[in-house]
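Handout, tutorial session.
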Amino acid sequence: MTHADDAEAVVVVGAGQAGAQTITSLRQGGFDGQITLLGDESALPYQRPPLSKAFLAGTLPLDRLHLRPAAFYQQAHVEVMIDTRVTEVDTDKRCARLTDGRAISFDHLVLATGGRPRQLGCPGADHPRVYYLRTVTDVERIRSQFHAGKRLVLVGGGYIGLEIAAVAAAHGLTVTVLEAQSTVLARVTCPTVARFFEDTHRRAGVTIRCATTVTCIHDSSSTAHIELDSGEYIEADLVIVGIGLLPNVDLALAAGLKCESGIVVDSRCQTSAPGIYAAGDCTQYPSPIYGRPLHLESVHNAIEQAKTAAGAILDRDEPFSQVPWFWSDQYDIKLQTAGVNEGYDDVIIRGDPSAASFAAFYLKAGKLLAVDAINRPREFMASKALIAEGAEIDPTQLSDESVPLTALTAAVTAPAHATFPASH
């Protein structure tokens, strides 16, 4: 803990979930030095998941998006500088330089720079009818055009694209989803889960076109004239692109920090430079559970890494080791995912997809890697413990709903934090 007469200074770059949690954890942990939060948006830190769900739908007001009210930062004695962009991190002089020439000195720096949408690369991608959804400003621009009868084309059938499709369909828009892979959610789910969501959207009137890419976007009477790889054309009043997120590592790279699929951090969220930490969507961290580095984009990951970074600044030895989890809301469907299924060699289905209540368990060499739980919160909760323990499970028992997962949890014999074989 620091003291007023020799107060240390912490600078947090990035005013998102990880940045806000870092501040909270520092103050809760007794840090009484200077804290400066630098954010390049015009809003205080806010939740991003509702942007493609309740906020886009208009059922969640802006003030309820904020992670903390303005009074919190005042009471916590945090200097918040929004609409502020950092141009350089000087690791030698220990300062962050801003676009206006100012330099903010630090003893500890936390990079919570998040990510940015991957851009569509075809000709015409800069068409004025093409949008991306990452910020409050993005949603406000999109929502102003969400009117019944409008033709919306979503490029990308991942979580963001499908969540937007659900909101748009409920608002009476004519919705088409274009996905380059053979199914939606192909990178993150098994075919059974992908088909379930495709069927769900089609029943709601959404057109799903897989194995389809956009080759060009032409201007046509103030609409977007979308050319597909098949040679067909689709007219759209509105195009929203959701084809992935790129970690914001430019500052880190320019500062000489090690970066791979994100800013490389250790188990305490420290970068390759002493006193500089990173947390959230911009990082790559070592997972003791999976035995390999991971780059994840999730609220849970951002919160827990921020706690770890704050703990390291407070000289606490609290290494980061978490089972990742995610969620997605589409219509009346709640998808909860625990773990990372990369490298799975078997999928066990528990429950009935036709009843919109089932779980897909992903195994590798008999060990549980991950679960997709559709309207199955018990399976989701139990699986987190099973994954953390590196559980080996009898697939017959796993698929048998008469065998409670709590019994399987109690029967785990693998040592805690057992790692999985490396993925190939």
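The second record follows below. Compare its token runs with those of the first.
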Amino acid sequence: MDLFHAMRVFVRVADAGSFTAAALQSDTSTAQVSRLVSELENHLQARLLQRTTRRLSLTEAGQRFLEQSRAILDQVELARVEASGAHLVPRGRLRVHSTIGLGIQLLASLAGRYDEIYPDVYLDLILSQRQPDLLEDNLDVIITLSRELPDSELIAQRLGTVFHVVCASPSYIEQYGAPKVPADLERHRCLRLADPVFADSWSFIGDGIEQTIQPSETFKVNVAEAMSSAAEAGMGVCLLPDYVAVPALQRGTLVRLLPLFRLQEKTIYALYPSRRFLDAKVKTWVGFLKAELPQAFAGYHQLIQNPKYWA
């Protein structure tokens, strides 16, 4: 027996005062309505209606069940309306995961602008260096960086490209000199970011030739901002994403090295479960990032090309 259907029919019988009237409202037969109410009573082990040849009346148990049924069915209908409208109106809590650097440098400020446009969405921005599981961690969207499209069953939307630059502090350059070609880095103190793309080697392209060097084992950290601080303190040469490097370049606490050589790039993707019945808050957040992030990255890329930041 479909309990919700039986409850709906029972409410119609109670409201209409007869099986026949309820049958007309339900587009079914009087016998089917009567049988369904009897099955409901058997299921509940309680008599809900007193029946005579001329009228129906609710028992005390029937009256209590009617009140509870109305409340339950109202909640079910409210849930149905809200769920069916989720793909139309952005509202509710949106859980987004990102790496720490990207979240601090870009997403946190963009979240404020998104909130102005969609005030009924409450954004939870979770920052860490680990790669989360979208379903197990109860996330709506993962913002991730990769050299190629992530191998995943999730939908991936490209949000932009991040460039990396080699940097060091002016004090370090004054003491050890600036490398002229990538091979010169073999004799420098290279600070390493614990990153699957650049952890083992740094690959440069210049004059159509690719050159790969193995950074020295001097210092390693898993957060780009901490790497930047170490380099600003004069610890050595580091490789930073442009959105982390630019503030230090503008402050003059770092300078860019080897500007004529291009490093491997990373693409930023938004990952989410499915395009089918996509929740409006997910759709609007991803669409907002697709509009805003490429402009931000273009601005960073233009800044790192400025010779005034070069060693």
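Points raised in discussion: The first strand starts at residue 49 and ends at 51.
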